[in-house]
Design goal:
Order of helices and strands: EEHHHEEEEEHHHEEE
Largest sheet: 5 strands, mixed
Oligomer: single chain
Helix content: 25-40%
Radius of gyration: 17 Å
Distance between the termini: 32 Å
């Protein structure tokens, strides 16, 4: 996933990118007027179209380095997914911290090469806040919370594979259980998004993790976090 650490993708991803069952409701506008509970994270799934339809979420909020990355994307639909994911993350940051949208953008630093502009996203000046984003073929997700957090989303019709690849990435016992089902595809997809969320959280020890289906957006998502996380059912508006 652009912006989050990402292992080798399943062969059938078709060029898509990768980047609680407490369900909250919509709340204050994400323009930075009201902060959420700093002890509770939040996560949201949306379609790319939903995000880009919000007038307060626009390309002008992005930093120059983000715009350069967007300009390098030649497939229009993929460019829109990346843009929507980064705007959705800003909206989550604004809601969680109370910062205005124009100050809610992440920085990125790769620990391997020491270069900025890729690697796990973070908030300068707020080292205790974890960030994560995901995007894949018209659906996007973002999560913000105290401590480590990771989120992943996939279209529910996607089927990861083949098994020889999944065996390098997923627990064998889980693969056997999924494979024993009449249609193993949905179970394998849920395993995949859970593993991705854990990877993006960046913790070696297991973290609390929840996976859910968003039927309205035909998506499957998972979030892993060190603290409680509220999954919002939709993009928020005035409370």
């Amino acid at each position: 996933m652009t912006g989050d650490p990402d292992p080798a993708p399943p062969p059938d991803r078709g060029g898509g990118d990768r980047g609680t069952d407490d369900r909250g409701t919509g709340g204050p506008d994400a323009g930075g007027h009201d902060a959420g509970d700093p002890a509770t994270g939040l996560a949201v799934v949306a379609t790319t179209r939903e995000v880009l339809a919000r007038p307060e979420l626009h390309e002008g909020l992005l930093a120059p380095w983000e715009l350069r990355r967007l300009d390098a994307i030649r497939v229009p639909s993929r460019r829109e997914d990346v843009l929507a994911a980064r705007l959705l993350l800003r909206s989550c940051v604004a809601r969680h911290t109370g910062l205005p949208l124009h100050r809610s953008g992440p920085a990125q630093l790769c620990p391997g090469c020491g270069r900025h502009g890729h690697g796990r996203p973070y908030l300068p000046g707020l080292p205790g806040v974890g960030l994560s984003l995901s995007h894949a073929d018209g659906v996007v997700a973002a999560a913000v919370g105290p401590g480590a957090i990771g989120i992943d989303v996939e279209p529910s019709t996607r089927r990861p594979g083949p098994l020889r690849v999944l065996r390098r990435l997923l627990p064998e016992a889980d693969l056997r259980e999924a494979g024993a089902q009449p249609d193993p595809g949905p179970a394998l997809l849920r395993l995949w998004v859970r593993e991705e969320a854990l990877l993006k959280a960046g913790r070696e020890t297991p973290l609390p993790l929840a996976e859910w289906s968003d039927h309205d957006r035909a998506a499957v998502a998972a979030v892993a976090s060190t603290g409680p996380t509220t999954v919002l059912p939709q993009l928020w508006g005035p409370g």
